[in-house]
Amino acid sequence: MADSDDSRNPNFTTSRRGYDRAEVDGFVQQMRANVESLEAEVASLNRKVAELGGPQGDDLRSELTKVSRDVDQILQAAREAADKMRTRAAEDASKWRGAADDDCRVMRDEAETQAFQLRKAAWESSTEMIDQVSSASADAIRLAEQDALFIRAEAEREALRLTGDARRDIEEELRAAKAEAERAIANARAESEAILETARQSAEAAQERARALEERRAELMGELESARSSIDQLESEIDTRRHAIHNAGMGETGVTVVLPEPAAPPMESSDPLEEGWIDEDASVRIVRPDAAPPVMAQPTALVDADELVAEVLQLREAQEHRDAAVEVEASHLEEAVDSTGGATDERDAGEDPVTEDSLDGPDVDTSVDHGESESSEDAEIPAETPSDTDDGPPTATPQPDGALDELFASLRSTDDRPDSAAEVTAPQPPSPAQEVPAEEPQGAETGDHESESIAEAVVPIELSVDPFELRERLLLPIENRALRGVKRTIVGLQNRVLEDLRLAGDDWSPEPVMFTATFESEIETLTNEAVVAGYAGAGEMLDLSAIPHPKGGRPTDQTAPFVKKLVEAVAEARASAAASGGSARQQAAAISRVFRAWRTDEAGRRLRDAAYSAYHEGLIRALGSAGVGTVSAMPRGRSHADCPAVK
Asked: pTM for the complete prediction?
């Protein structure tokens, strides 16, 4: 079986230039298949022999033995053939190995020779190429240095030119600014001198007014003292007459004094006889006797003591009012004198200066000075102006020898005179106006619109949100997004305009069509979003469950006003720079300032106006579609000029 295993799995030594391995492997596989088939057949026959047994089995066994010998012979022949093939293959392999070694040696020598030649040629070529590259790089470096020197010289010349232009522009701007500053300083100096002159005149007028008030105060104090002395004389005369009447009543005149229950404390009096005699509510009735008294003349008319006491009380109250008015006027006078001590009150700056002619009169309107000394208010304080004849309380001269009726007549005439102190009444704030629907007059025709006064009943809607806060909240992200896009667009448009100006020169002018095409998309998007925001704002105002669907066509075009203002600003800046003799660079600088101003503030303001207009348009549409009949402007806040609610 060892031979069988060797024949099944033969091992051949691999060598160069031997037999073809594929053919040898094929032959070996074929022989292996034959051997396996024969072995299988022998095994089958052995099983049959074992099954049959007997003499037939012996014959069969002999046959099988014969077949086994044949198979062994075949295997031996196969092994011999394989050994021959292996021997021949080994001989061929050794012969081919020697030939291969010779060939390899020759080829290696040739390869070394060729490699040396190639290395030599490559070295020579690389050396030549290095020399060429070195010379080319030296030439390139020399040319680059020349170009760099030329570019540096050009840059220096351009820098010098730009520096000179900038220096001239700065000097011109400085000269213009200095001239403007000098003009402003001169104007300010002139205005300050005029203001100082006006202030000086106002101060002089205030001092004159203060002197007049001081004189008026002295006069009023004198009149007050005179009135007090007159009242004291009148009271003493009244007490004397009352005492005489009392004595006459106790004698033969038959005067009856009726004293009711006192309702108030008795009046204070310096006369001891008056105490306990009469009070404010007492009444005195004089009863004429049948015969006239021989010792005392009777008065020509009856006198009511109650009326007499009332007149005395009125005189006292009038005197108290006069004292209070004089004290108030004196305090105001002191404040006016303190406030006008060399400085001018700001409240007098807007008034006309008071001349000396206005102070020459005998009377001074104390109510005006009183108003000036108070804190400045917008509302005017009306004051009663005393007449020329009522400078103060009258100085009543007592008449000790006159009759009672003349005394009472003089008291009545004194009490009827107006108070010298003006009453100052603060104006009451007006009551808020109420809207009341007017009634249609009887007999008016229904077709006459001028006489029709029936007001349509309008039910106001209470808003749950503040409309201005709602508008800012909805429009702020839209405005910011549009402003960022417009600023980028302005930068690109500025570069394009400056390039066109550089190429066209004096023939250049801004093209509205180009400006419109540049901003149309951004502004149209802004207005559309603002209209939608208006619809959303209406939904929030009315607490609608669903936002109304925008309808009513495209919103008002806001691109044209935006572009028109920008084109006008650019054209005006260029024309102004050209009119002042500016170069193309100065014109470009003026245009750049316009674009910079628009990027900084103007574009944002214009976009905000456009957004407000579109928002209000959408808001009015949405409110109308929601059933709101009348829209009025809010009473607080600043309404937009284009808002349909205020049109």
From this structure: 0.33
